[in-house]
Amino acid sequence: MSLTVRPVRGRRDLDAFLSLPARLDGAHPAFRTGLREDLLDALSDDNPLWAEGRGERELFLAWRGETPVARVLAHAHLASNLRHGEPEVGFFGCLACPDEPATLAALLDTATAWHRARGRTRLRGPYDLTITGCIGVVTAGFERPASFSQSWSAPHLPRLLEQYGMTVAYTATTLRCDDLSIVDEQSMLGPKQRAWLTEPGVTLRTFRMDRFEADMFAATDLLNRSFSDNWGFVPMSEDEVRFIAAPMKRVVRPELTVFLELHGRAVGVGLFLPDFNEVFARMGGRLWPLGWATFLWHQRKVRAAVAQFIATDPTLQDKGVMRIIVAELVKNLKGAGFTSLDGTWIGDSNAKSLRTAESVGMREKHRLAVYQST
Fold first, then answer.
1. N or C of the chain: less Cβ packing under 10 Å?
2. What would the pLDDT profile of 191-239 be if each residue is shown by its tens digit?
3. What domain range is 276 assigned to?
4. How far apart are CA 10 and CA 159, in angstroms?
5. Where is the domain boundary, 150, 175, 200?
6. Is residue 95 located within the same domain as residue 155?
7. H or E stretch including 114?
């Protein structure tokens, strides 16, 4: 039966797009579904990423007769193109495809044609949706499920992308510590860190829910400045912060975010969250109609945490600030009953962050690769 690729139109198509990964890969032991509503919100017009000409997107499904068999998102983050001087780059993401070279080729040919019609000639991805989210396909560690804010993809995808003619543009790693009890957080504090903590005006504190928005803006300001020179990074705008802050307020654990302040000004932050993927699996990836009750019941029972980001004031990045934050967070994790720690991806060129992760007993979990057309 012939294959056709066409844009998602209407509720039936959208439902097929959202459901496809579970149908294709659900039998794999490491497959875990994310929260359907999270992806739906990210792709909606409510996301400021798509507002005021900042970005654009089109969802595509490959059909064999009346059956959807593969999907891809073609999208552009125009702020990234401008910041990095790459007007020719268009992204793809949300890739789900069976082990069929012709099907992948049809998907990416369609995404390429969509970008070319808008003046972009190089395809890069997967990006779900920007550099601050999940990127890449897994190239090693397929047997390990993704935690919250991590990617997982089928083992055949790297081979299909290379057969299509794409090459690796960037590599990254996710890491995991299976047993936090073996980590001695005090040993992370050397003379430099201990001296810092005795300085007048230096304080450590957790997230304050009574000033939630102010703390969110302080954290993302540090993120924007700390990650400014990282590959592909684009600072988050105020309305993007507000967009993610609303759902985060319902799930943030104050003790899992630590600020280091100097005379009342935040100079470092670490933001960790529980591994909600454990709960999403129980919910079938859906909040409605009854998933919300499952979430409320089980979220406090999660004993795995995921490091979202650690950021420090660029003027203090050689002062040992990051280790102070990590040590405090490990102490808080243990005190709250968490037993393991995962991390979102770290670029392989970011040697300092990789060393910090290894100091907490974290070891490689997944290898990731971002591909691009030549």
1. C
2. 999 998 998 999 999 999 999 999 999 999 999 999 999 999 999 999 9
3. 180-365
4. 33
5. 175
6. yes
7. helix 101-116
